[in-house]
Amino acid sequence: MNELKTCFKKVDYDLSGLLHYIDIGDIGLPDIQRPFVWSNAKVRDLFDSMYRGFPVGNLLFWENTQINGAKQIGIGSKQHTAPSRLIVDGQQRLTSLFAVFRGKKVLDEDYKERQIEIAFRPRDGAFEVGNALIRKDPEWISNISKLWASGKSSFHLVKGFLESLNAKTSLTKDEEDQISHNLDRLFDLQKYPFTALEIAPTVDEEQVANIFVRINSEGVTLNQADFILTLLSVFWDEGRHALEDFCQASRLPPVPGKGPSPFNHFIQPDPDQLLRVAIAIGFGRGVLKSVYQVLRGKDLDTGEFSPERRQEQFNVLQSAQAKVLDLTQWHQFMSALIGGGFRSGAMVSSKNALLFAYAFYLLGHGRCGVSEHHLQKAIGRWFFFSSLTGRYTGSPESVMDGDLNRLKGVTTHQGFIDALNHVMVSSLTNDFWGITLPAALESSSARNPELFAYVAAQNRLNAPVLFSHKKISDLIDPALQTKKKALERHHLFPRAWLEKQAITDQKVINQMANYALLEWPENIAISDTPPSEYVPQMRDRFSAIEWKTMNDLHGLPESWENMEYQDFLQERRRLMAAIIRRGFETLV
User: What is the pTM for the complete model shown?
Assistant: First the structure.
């Protein structure tokens, strides 16, 4: 019978001591939670709470006796290259405090450096985020970082502020005393007490994650990708930086003359997302739980750790990551999505489906040697399928693991194509097309995978915009930068008219089957006119063949404008499902 023991101890610090330990590298940041600091407003609230003497929560550290080289807060060399304590919970608070007390810049969610400026008004002890007006107001210290960065004593700081303020306005003795008291209190925040719960070094990373989730009130969940990114910071920092640089560049439109860029209209990835792709193609795994231990050099059979084994596994990861970050492959993959009828991230309901499709693209291109012509169609088809069926929305890691297992040992062009086709054929049965899909189209959701597949199919079939000679694929091009969206979703049976017919349920009115994409001038012109009145006017613009083709590619039954609304919805859902099938089958 195992004896349960307390796995942590309580240690008290004051703020100046914590900052000192960060300065010398004794407290390190392992990056096992989100690495970016709060908004300036939240930092302001932190200082206000501390100033008022309110508690701001315990810190959670993980004693470290094994990992060397963990990333540390702050810039510059450290006296201790291996921190003895890693921050598990409290990163946001300590990073914010360190940045303000040391005047250091921080990175935001777009990997850009910014300065945190917190202002303080000594007259009433108010805190605010620094801005242009505050910088001009002598009542404020516009950036409190300057108090501690100056190296001056509190006496000199108080004296200097009072002299400056007296030069602008006359202060009474009571006002001077109050201002002096408030400034002394601000300066003494360095003595603010913190309690840290320090987890023993014998506790493994999975237990640490569990502890974090149980005590964290912000709802941030640690996952295996977070721990693997930590390992990259420790054993392959260049790889971690390469991921971050790629993700940063993907968020910014390319600058002419600056060379190729990962920017695209489908996804601005995060490092953990690209890491998953690298692990899928390097280790053939979708479930990351065991990968962390493998990368630490653990033999999964004997349980022993080996530096040599760790390096071997990192070599595998390095090779895989190089393929993931190859810009030629990255953009060729995006062109496969476009070939599948998808034009931008606005049509992507599952980022997992996109990322896993990229992994399959790289496996087909690299290990299986599939020709680019065939690979483009195969991946466009696979993404269409996995997006339509919501393949990776339930248990994405487990499903991906199963899909990768089907490709285990497959090294040929035909073997790769056959493996993907087998999965799709077994899922897309006649019952799926004729029963499951029409039922799924009975939805009013604006971000429905079936709806995106329907539009993708229309793009594949070269469908025109309803009541227009222009093509849908042209007008939903994300490169178009217009003041007003070129296309709008239009109620074929207008809402106001339906409500007059005593149909008031918004889920019924806003059914996918009651929508079509129209150019915005047409949408405005039709307004609330019933289809029995506006459709004859529209029909006169087109030849009989053009009209029939247009209605066919929009899943509109013959004489639909005169149908009962519920009958129309049922029949159109069936026709929309048929269009999705036709569009998908063009990718064979």
Answer: 0.75
